[in-house]
Amino acid sequence: MQTFNYDDFKNEKGIVSFSEAEQIYSSLLNSSNQLDKEFQEEWTTFVLLCVEYASARGKWLTLSREEKLANDESRTVTHNKVIYQLKILKGLASEQGNDVAWFEQFNDDRKRIGDFACYVAYIYALNAR
Fold first, then answer.
1. Cβ–Cβ contacts within 10 Å for residue 124, how many?
2. Alpha-carbon span 30 to 12, nearest angstrom
3. CA distance 126 to 129
4. Given its phi and psi angles, is residue 107 left (phi above 0), alpha (psi -120 to 50 degrees) or beta?
5. DSSP three-state, residue 75
6. 113: CB partners within 8 A, 6+ apart
7. 39-64 burial string, b = 16+ CB within 10 Å, else e?
8. Which tens digit of pLDDT belongs to each residue from 72-98?
9. How far apart are CA 86 and CA 43, in angstroms?
10. pTM score above 0.85
11. Which of these, 26, 84, 7, lies nearest to 50 by C-alpha position?
């Protein structure tokens, strides 16, 4: 199996780098009322979906062709849920009149949102030590 590092990822087109993800993450949280019960519930759902998606994506390059075919629909469904949940968070911030320009940094690109989901999972995994 091939091994990878962060530099391999950085060579891909249209990525969300760590520094960009950090900026989007901060802007998202700053645009949100983190004390609001609804935000907290939606954020928890978002984080859990990010962790689920990152797990599926992290395993992807280790799977055989047959395993990929068997898991592709599930991974796509989880990815769609991440996108939907991110839009809910954007909507909550927008309802409160807050700046949601951070969302436009995804350029309506599924892969960029997937990169961000992996970053969110990474942040929560590191903080769980």
1. 14
2. 29
3. 6
4. left
5. helix
6. 79, 82, 83, 86, 106
7. beebbebbbebbbbbbebbeeeeeee
8. 999 999 999 999 999 999 999 999 999
9. 9
10. yes
11. 84
Q: Which two tokens stand for residue 85?
A: 């949940």
Among 74, 23, 19, 32, smallest CA distance to 49 is for 74
3-state helix, strand, coil split of the chain in percent (to 5) is 75, 0, 25
Local structure of residue 60 (DSSP, 8 states)? G
| Residue spans of alpha helices (H) in the chain | 6-10, 18-30, 37-59, 65-95, 101-104, 110-127
Answer whether 82's CB lies under 8 Å from 49's CB.
yes
Per residue in 11-60, pLDDT tens?
Answer: 889 999 999 999 999 999 999 999 999 999 999 999 999 999 999 999 99
